[in-house]
């Protein structure tokens, strides 16, 4: 979002020269179950009982005489060579399970209809299980799609192949690399080698 506010335009093009396969491990299966648990937790009332919503901290000043024509306001912008209705992105939250994939399809439909960018949650699990996410691009042909893999996976032996597979499968306009060593540390199946 900071990049959008500052008017920067980024474009990532990755040429796919090879096809490779990642096979699901026991840890991938544990991870899939955990991802569904995260969805349940996010929906529960107990997930954030004492935390204010950040939007509650925003106050818009009243201006009774704005001296402008509302019809002259244009919030549209370009991001990753595509037009957005306004500088907003639904960021990566989930994926890798049937429930997560269904949520991503719903996010894609809403984002495409609204003209906002969409970032996915980590694609590693989907790639490891051979589940293509190309339905998302079909659901959202007109908006920027940002793929996602973990920095720890990028640093591994086949990291660049994983990154290329994530971009290729989604027909992504960019790739987000998430960094979360604390989350990896507290997960039973988490990656603990952050070298590279």
Keywords for this entry:
196 residues; alpha/beta; 4-stranded parallel β-sheet; two-stranded antiparallel sheet; 8 helices; 37% helix; globular
What does this structure look like?
The protein is an alpha/beta fold. Helices cover 37% and strands 11% of the residues. It is built from 8 helices and 6 strands, in the order ααβββαβααβααβα. The chain has helices at 2-5, 26-43, 98-114, 124-128, 134-139, 151-154, 159-170, 181-186, and strands at residues 77-79, 82-84, 89-90, 117-119, 145-150, 174-178. It has a 4-stranded parallel beta sheet. Strands 1-2 form a two-stranded antiparallel sheet. The longest helix has 18 residues, at 26-43. The chain is globular and about 60 Å long. The two termini are 27 Å apart. Mean pLDDT is 81; it is low at 1-24.
Task: Give a summary of the structure in a few sentences.
The chain is of the alpha/beta class and 196 residues long. It has 8 helices and 6 strands.
Layout of SSEs?
Blueprint: H1 2-5, H2 26-43, E1 77-79, E2 82-84, E3 89-90, H3 98-114, E4 117-119, H4 124-128, H5 134-139, E5 145-150, H6 151-154, H7 159-170, E6 174-178, H8 181-186
Parallel strand pairs: 3-4, 4-5, 5-6
Antiparallel strand pairs: 1-2
